[in-house]
Amino acid sequence: MKISKKAITLNVGLVLMGSAVFAQSLTDAKKAIDAEQYQKASSMLKSLVSSKASDGENYYNLGLVYLKTGYIDSARAVFTKGLTADPKNASNLIGLGEADLLSNNPTSAKTNFDKAIELGKKDYQTYLQIGRAYLAQDKPSDEVSKPDFTNAIANITKADELDTKDKDAGVFLALGDAYALQRKNSEALGPYFRVNDVDPTNRRAKTQIGKMYKESRAFPEGEKELLDVIAADPNYGPAYRELGELYLQWSNFGTDKEKAAKGIENYKKYMDLTDKSLESQLRYAQFLFYAKDFKTLEQVASAIQAPANDPKNAIVSRMKGWAAYENKNYPVALTSMTEFFAKEKDTTRILGNDYLYLGKAQLQAGQDSLALNNIIKATKVDSANAEALSEAAAALYKAKKYAKSADVYELAAKYNPNGKGSLYNYLYIGINRFLESYYLKKENKPMNIEGLVRADTALGTLSKASPDFALSYFYRARINDYIDQTKNASATKGLMIPYYEKYVTLVKPEEQASAKSNLIESYRLLGAWYADKDKAKAIDYLNKCLALDPADSYATAKLKELQAPAAAKGKGK
User: What are the angstrom distances between the C-alpha of 560 and each of 353, 479, 530, 557, 563?
Assistant: First the structure.
């Protein structure tokens, strides 16, 4: 059968037209992925997989959507189908390799990458996709996986060599990402600028430049870059997210309320422009925590819906627990944090804050022992949490559990020897050990002599660090009085005397009113000690006692006794 030239031309035209429609659809799907509109991209790609079931690129991009949203098993299933449908296409082998990396199986990943190179070693896209796979390990909600920059850059560089005409902006974008993720901003700028040369419509490179400025704390410069992106494309969601995070950092994480509010406003815009994937909702929840908008955080976290078997369910419980505690909703905090630990099976993903908030919630519920164990774990993970030990100790002090409070203040001093509030830890070790001993003595129980000795050492540390802090000497006097009574019961040695004497010299005139009871105690005991050793000193101290409290019966009687012999001698004359 003879086929006319016109018919051939017409058929070719139909084929080309069909290819153009298909290519445009795949391009739109990729744009949706870049804009983090994952549900939209997923819907488009599922349609493409159905209509073009033999084209492996559709499966590959659908699998990437699953990887980006955290569904590794679903992604692996799609890549496997794509490999079956289009076995000569290397992309799905690369997708399987990326899934392996995210599953912490680099050996299997390399096997899949090597197979992909066998199929497409002359195609720069093969190396570009492998390079991107090595970079894709950097995920905001994942504290474990990290990019393999060496292999990433090696493969992207190979892609650049094969793309001899520099026609694909994606190569430069990937190279810029590789450097930016390492905080090598100077090296990243060049490739990002090249992206704009190759594809002026690309929004992500300029967004990344704004992000780099943010990370360098060059906030005005970063703000300008991101506002330029938004002016060029008001619907490009990732620019709003980066602008929101820039304002958050610029606000010093919620300290500047005006900038923090701008940050939240832009992040909400990002959420409205994207499909509110589980990943983006969790990132928004984390954003709200650092912006200190705990009320909104609790609402957002409570509204997040994740499949029951989804590992990210644990993160939802985490955010609920953190927010509930900050909002003083302690029962919900305890329930949510307990749920988090039941759901999170990978202990490497548990943060210091998780132990901290569970411990704090348990403390509010009166579960002291459990609370302390978890707060100690939090401190071991991150020493910055040592302040929570002081908070726990203060709560125990308020509950009049003085021995436990002292124990916890000792731990706080151990883990936070020089940090914020550390000197008060040493003071409260002394105060609690004194009160512990006071009640033990009152109940005729043996004193905790080891605890008293440790308290004396702690107060000594405080005095060395702050020699003019009067109260440390006062409690050191009390502590040494108990040590003296215990160790030298038959003949006390006056261990407390140097500390009482130091204390009374350090109290400033303007502090005497607030320190009145402590001064009375000090002058009375000093007067009693010196009564049979140095009468002049004793009389001086007792007079000072009476000057503060004329009704003090001990000082009145003792002073009368000390002055009586002199008065009798005068009468004899």
Answer: 63, 30, 15, 5, 5
Question: Is-contact 277 309, C-beta < 8 A?
Answer: no
Using CA atoms in the order 181, 182, 188, 192, what is the torsion angle rounded to 10 degrees? -10
Under a CB-based contact definition with an 8 Å cutoff, are residues 205 and 195 in contact? yes
Are residues 154 and 175 in contact, defined by beta-carbon separation less than 8 angstroms?
no
Q: Which two tokens mark 290?
A: 């650092």
> What architecture is domain 22-162?
Alpha Horseshoe (1.25)
Spatial contact of 375 and 396, defined as CB atoms under 8 Å apart = no
Q: How many helices (H) and strands (E) does the chain have?
A: 29, 0
Give the Cβ contact number of residue 360 at 10 Å: 25
Over its C-alpha atoms, the chain yields an Rg (Å, rounded) of 36
* Cα of 97 vs its chain's centroid, Å: 31
For 277-334, the DSSP string reads -HHHHHHHHHHHHHTT-HHHHHHHHHH----TT-TTHHHHHHHHHHHHHHTT-HHHHH
Higher pLDDT, 199 or 146: 199
pLDDT digits (tens, 9 = 90+) for 254-286: 999 999 999 999 999 999 999 887 888 999 999
Q: Has residue 568 got a pLDDT over 60? A: no
Tokens of 33: 């992925």
Domain locations in the chain as residue ranges:
22-162
Cα three-residue angle 106-108-114, rounded to 5 degrees: 100
Going by C-alpha positions, the residue among 343, 407, 423, 339 that lies closest to residue 375 is 407
Contacts of 257 (CB under 8 A, 6+ apart): 251
What is the pTM (predicted TM-score) of this model?
0.72
Compute, in degrees rounded to 10, the torsion defined by CA atoms 303, 307, 313, 317.
Answer: 40
Please state whether 99 falls in left (phi above 0), alpha (psi between -120 and 50) or beta: alpha
3-state secondary structure at position 328: coil
pLDDT tens digits, one per residue of 360-402: 999 999 999 999 999 999 998 988 888 899 999 999 999 999 9
Alpha carbon distances (Å) from 188 to 161, 194, 382: 18, 10, 32
Selection from 112, 532, 530, 40 nearest residue 280 by Cα:
40
Q: Please, which residues have CB within 8 angstroms of residue 513's CB and are 6 or more apart in sequence?
A: none
DSSP string, 129-191: HHHHHHHTT--TT-SS----HHHHHHHHHHHHHH-TT---HHHHHHHHHHHHTTT-HHHHHHH
pLDDT, mean of residues 47-63 = 96
Q: Which amino acid is at 32?
A: A
Contact between 289 and 297 under an 8 Å Cβ cutoff? The reply is yes
CA-to-CA distance for 111 and 100, rounded, in angstroms?
10
